[in-house]
Amino acid sequence: MRARYRRILRFASWYLAITWWFELFLPRIGLVKIAERTRSKRMQRFAKGFHMLASDLGGLMIKVGQFMSSRLDVLPPEITKELEGLQDEVAPVAFAAIRAAAEAELGMPLERAFMSVDETPVAAASLGQAHRARLTALDTADTGLDGVIIKVQRPGIDAIIDVDLAALRKVGGWLSHVKLVSNRVDMPALVEEFAQTSLEEIDYLHEGASSERFAAAFPDDDRVSVPVVVWERTTRKVLTLEDVTAIKITDVGALHKAGIDPAQVAPLFAEVMFDQMFTKGFFHADPHPGNIFVTPDADIERGWKLTFIDFGMMGEVHTSTRTGLRKMLIAAASRDGRGLVSAMNDVGVLLPSAETTELERAMTTLFARFGGMGFAELREVDPREFRDFAVQFGDVVRSLPFQLPENFLLIIRAMSLTSGVASSLNPAFNLWDSVEPYAAQLLRDESGNLVQDFAKRAMDTAGLAFRLPKRLDEFISRVEDGSVGVANPGLEKRVVRLERTTRQAVSALVFGALLIAGVLLRADDAVLGTVLMVASVAPLLHALFAGRRGF
């Protein structure tokens, strides 16, 4: 473990030293062109070196690589592109070690816990390993299940994770003292964010609970299926699930053989993912092809359903953020670059100090050129166009003061995987075709709320308008009776003028609020809408003639 810790720190310190030399020292002595000329190659060398380190060490280093590959807001494309291919696949652990770990957790021999266990793993990853098994007759009678999957944590993974996190925290502390980094990202906070996600992923009790919560979000929905958790054979390090193995979602040949049209699977998959992210607020953040099956089902008119597995990486979107995300989806569907940037502000992606003019221009240009294109159409575009736009967009993004929240990055990851899976099912699949009707439905849902919200705001404004003059009167009375000390004899006249001006301004505000509210409400309630429009005449007259004789 010490050697592992030292190797991680040695790798990090070496590349930090190189970065300090080229990015800080050389520019100070007037050799900035050397730094700029070698930057791309240095970043590529770093990414390849980290790729090798992660492949050798496994554990959290592979997760770090995957995590960095998604941090498009922080890291340049030379790094994220290289780490995209880092697979969470490692050599399997010998079954004897898996058996010992499972028996220690379950507190009994495997022969007693299960009728049989297949020693050949179904899957082997950096954090865990999965094997097929059969429940005992008693457990089968209790659960109604026979075939199950046992997911067992790799022996010693807890200690490896502790060492990896200790090394990452040390490196994060170093980076927090580098202004080049600290001005763009809070590294210690980023490490803790990653640590929390990783610790949740190795807690199989948490994964089991997430599986049941996901299933509860789709009650009686014939589009979605989730494996049953066998809690009697589940602990923090061992997870036993119903074996729901079926047709891998991207196995086009098997789908055709089962009489299932892949072109029909793609839009349904996209629809289910949209529901999770923008409606349910709880979504599968790792929907790669190995985690989704297409399960034939003769009891469904469609003839098949989608089965999700592996709920270790889940994303949660709170109501306020979900509202902003809906606005982003609607803006994207309508190719509204300015609206998209505004929604990004609502979500909290951009800091309040961000100057967004250039970003709005870039997004508008991108929408104008590529908006609405499907995967097949994008493949026909000259790659030089992509490079030009990527340079322009990347420079704009990296110049802005923002850092994407973790859940937002999980959404980007989920959307990217959704698009990739759907396009592999049907090369002509156009994600916009699924986004636009969904966004239109969201817009219809939001419109009713908008009318109610505006009417409420109008009433609140009217209440403020009628309360404010009274409060000014009370203030003048206090001045007159001496309860407020006044040093300036002309204050009373100024307060009177202030009161008159305020009454006019508030009346104008109330007029606008009542008139617009009446117009909006009239479509749904003609009587109330007309009353509000007529009532707006009174504050209009007051705004125009306040201060004259008789008013």
List keywords for this structure.
11 strands; 551 residues; alpha+beta; five-stranded antiparallel beta sheet; 64% helix
Structure notes:
The chain has about 550 residues and is of the alpha+beta class. About 65% of the residues lie in helices and about 10% in strands. The radius of gyration is 30 Å and the shape is globular.
TL;DR of this structure?
By secondary structure, the chain is of the alpha+beta class. 64% of the residues lie in helices and 8% in strands.
Report mean pLDDT, rounded to a whole number: 78
Strand proportion, as a percent range, falls in 5-15%
Work out the radius of gyration.
30 Å
What structural category arises from helix and sheet content? alpha+beta
Distance between the termini: 85 Å
Quantity of strands, as a count: 11
Q: Estimate percent helicity.
A: 55-70%
Largest sheet: 5 strands, antiparallel
Q: How are the SSEs placed, and which strands pair?
A:
Elements (H helix, E strand, L loop, with lengths): L1 H27 L3 H26 L2 H10 L7 H7 L11 H12 L3 H4 E4 L5 E2 L3 E8 L1 H7 L3 E7 L3 H19 L3 H4 L4 H15 L2 H13 L7 E2 L12 E5 L4 E2 L3 H6 L4 H19 L1 E3 L7 E5 L7 E5 L5 E3 L2 H15 L3 H11 L9 H14 L4 H5 L3 H17 L6 H20 L5 H50 L10 H32 L3 H10 L1 H9 L6
